[in-house]
Write a structure and sequence with these properties.
single chain, alpha+beta, Endonuclease, Chain A, 4-stranded mixed beta sheet, 5 helices, 12% strand
């Protein structure tokens, strides 16, 4: 299938449409966990750079839940962040822009006095460890 045909492929289009940026599985896991710990939060605050996943305005803290592939998790033990073997000329710049945007948003939040906790999709398998990190961060 050529690149031109890929753009017109209804199956590929349906697949790409199904990829969400909000209310993802990993985000929902963290939201349920934080709520069960007794914390209340705001979702995707438009007044903050990057519209962080969970915001705790009185504490000036945010939690970002990142997908390992889309945000290119740099941990060498993470198998989810592999670069696709096809169309690297498309994927490499796209994923690099995501990482650059993440860094810019975190810098902007820091300059506004907000602290950020980044949780990666692959880390969520160890729920007790994540819960401990969240408790420590939100104290």
């Amino acid at each position: 299938m050529t690149k031109k045909n890929q753009r017109n492929d209804p199956g590929r289009s349906a697949n790409m449409r199904s990829i969400r940026s909000k209310d993802t599985g990993p985000e929902m896991v963290v939201r349920r966990m934080v709520h069960a710990l007794g914390y209340r939060f705001r979702l995707h605050l438009p007044t903050l750079p990057g519209r962080p996943d969970l915001a705790f305005p009185p504490r000036h803290k945010v939690i970002e839940v990142r997908g390992c592939f889309w945000h290119q998790h740099a941990d060498p033990n993470c198998g989810n962040a592999l670069m696709p073997s096809t169309r690297r000329d498309y994927w490499a710049p796209k994923l690099a822009r995501n990482r650059e945007r993440d860094a810019n948003n975190m810098n902007a939040l820091a300059s506004m006095g907000w602290k950020t906790l980044v949780l990666w999709e692959c880390e969520l398998a160890d729920r007790p460890r994540i819960e401990k990190r969240i408790r420590k961060f939100l104290k």
